Amino acid sequence: MDDEMVDDGFACQSFDEWTWDELRASMMELSDLTDEYAGVPVPVEDMGLVIAEGYRFAEAFQVRRETEASSDVVVRNSWPLRWKGLRVGARVYVVEHEGRIRAHVQPRYRSSAAATMLVHSMRASLAYDPYAEQIAREKLADMLAPHIMAAYLTTGAFIESSERSGLTYLLRMGRPTVVLAGDRTNPDANLRVLTTLCMHPIGYYVDESGDGSMAGAMVPTDDVVSHLLFIRADEAGYWRVANQHHPESAEAAL
Amino acid sequence: MTGYLDVLSVGRGHLRLTFDGNDEADRERAEQIIADMLKRGYAIFVEDDDGKVKRVKRFDPETFTYIVDDDAAMDKTRTCRTCGADKPLAWFPPRGRGRSRDCSTCLGATKRSKRPTKRVGVSRARATAVGRSAGG
Hints:
The complex is a heterodimer of chains A (254) and B (136).
Chain A: H1 4-7, H2 20-34, E1 47-51, E2 73-83, E3 86-97, E4 100-107, H3 110-124, H4 130-143, H5 146-155, E5 157-161, E6 168-172, E7 177-181, E8 192-198, E9 203-207, E10 212-216, H6 220-233, H7 235-241, E11 243-245
Antiparallel strand pairs in A: 1-9, 2-3, 3-4, 5-6, 6-7, 7-8, 8-11, 9-10
Chain B: E1 2-9, E2 13-20, H1 24-40, E3 43-47, E4 53-55, E5 58-60, E6 65-69, H2 71-75, E7 77-79, E8 86-88, E9 94-95, E10 98-99, E11 117-121, E12 126-130
Parallel strand pairs in B: 1-12
Antiparallel strand pairs in B: 1-2, 3-4, 3-12, 5-6, 6-11, 7-8, 9-10
């Protein structure tokens, strides 16, 4: 079994021919045959996957970033527009068209962007097996006190404090983890939001136009388990591998 | 006793691999899988004897153990005879049967002593492996 099996179309040719159960089963069969312990992400029609560097089948999952309006328009650079250090809900694009370079400001309303990401996440959730989510919740229940697990089941979030750093983490299902910090003299008082941390093992889904989602390749509670393990055992490593999103941005989901 | 390694896996929640240290074939399989995971960049977390979760730094196939940081050794402190500062015990280099009464800095060392480690047997460990992060 080698990567040729993937290149030759081991994955389905048409999504209409497969049920979701059949597709998931095929991906699990592929992971068993190739000893890919973390599994193979399930493709979703019209969505791409951003895959971890070094993952064996990364080339099989192509991600298309910003779609170009026409072949004559080339995006040379883009960045979020900021005012006094805060994002103002717009993005600047520097484009080249017919030999001329222009700057264009694209408004990006935070609430619309957040809602769009949520819809993309719901589309990606078609790849999830509810039974796998149940198994992940049982794993999480082994790691938490019963009342904290109850908070997670009923609200989708729970709090974990780090004695090492003094930071407080608000872990949420299907959303980035919120990092809270108190003042130096009383770490538990006057908590303020420092940032949000987003990390998905193996990969996460994006829309075909390149817009992100909050859906990882694994079920949401598996992402929460991975965040919790890093916080408890390798907090510095957690901050290294996670992406930070400004609390005011749509990606923070606050 | 049989230890296990839960690998967070797409589509399954997690994949549980059990290892019996008394079974030679099982032990060889475990050595291959764990070494392969660490080589591929998986993060393996194991619960130590104190019940705390630690990240596996290395795997020793000779002794069939995970090697993790020994935080307890870092918690023990000693006062340096020269500078008078309280420092972790690990910062006092070994001397004879015990440790020096002067910290490594006062002794002129340019490098800090390596962080102390301890071993956790694979055959009795409860471990979880997480694949490489794609960010988010």
